[in-house]
């Protein structure tokens, strides 16, 4: 897990594990939507999720191109974009994949304004 908004493409022509910016035809739209979400999230907007074991990982403006972060061949985000013309971003909302029930209210507070802003944009 992490705290970042990721956008297509997740796959790249070279299939290098990381570091390849894989630009889609709608790159600017995807960046706009990802920033709309990230800019309202108190952790995501810093670009420094500070996840255990990944403390040095950073994401400018709290967003990343999927393949630049890590290459995913055959992912749903790319499939939906290419074959269904469905624009989606992937939201990594927590360093922990399974947060405790007691942490869910805090997670809601962290994401409420981001979600509302994202809905307004789409």
From TrEMBL:
Any signal peptide, and if so, which residues?
Answer: none
GO MF, one term, reads:
metallocarboxypeptidase activity
A GO cellular-component term linked to this record: extracellular space
Pfam families the record matches: Peptidase_M14
Entry keyword Protease: yes
Q: Which InterPro entries match?
A: Peptidase_M14, Peptidase_M14_domain
Q: Which residues form the active site?
A: 92
Tree of life domain = Eukaryota
Q: Which Gene Ontology BP annotations are present?
A: peptide metabolic process; protein processing
> Which controlled-vocabulary keywords does the entry list?
Carboxypeptidase, Hydrolase, Protease
Q: Does the keyword Transcription regulation apply?
A: no
Domain named Peptidase M14 is located at 1-122
Family indicated by similarity: Belongs to the peptidase M14 family.
Q: Which PANTHER family match?
A: CARBOXYPEPTIDASE D, B (PTHR11532:SF57), PROTEASE M14 CARBOXYPEPTIDASE (PTHR11532)
Name of the protein in question: CBPD Carboxypeptidase
Organism listed in the record: Polioptila caerulea (Blue-grey gnatcatcher)
């Amino acid at each position: 897990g992490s705290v970042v908004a990721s956008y297509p493409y997740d796959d790249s022509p070279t299939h290098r594990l990381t570091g390849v910016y894989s630009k889609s035809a709608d790159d600017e739209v995807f960046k706009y939507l990802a920033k709309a979400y990230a800019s309202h999230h108190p952790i995501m907007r810093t670009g420094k999720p500070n996840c255990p074991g990944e403390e040095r990982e950073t994401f400018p403006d709290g967003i990343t191109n999927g393949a630049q972060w890590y290459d995913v061949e055959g992912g749903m985000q790319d499939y939906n974009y290419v074959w269904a013309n469905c624009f989606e971003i992937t939201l990594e909302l927590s360093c922990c994949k399974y947060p405790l029930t007691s942490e869910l209210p805090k997670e809601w507070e962290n994401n409420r304004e981001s979600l509302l802003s994202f809905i307004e944009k789409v």
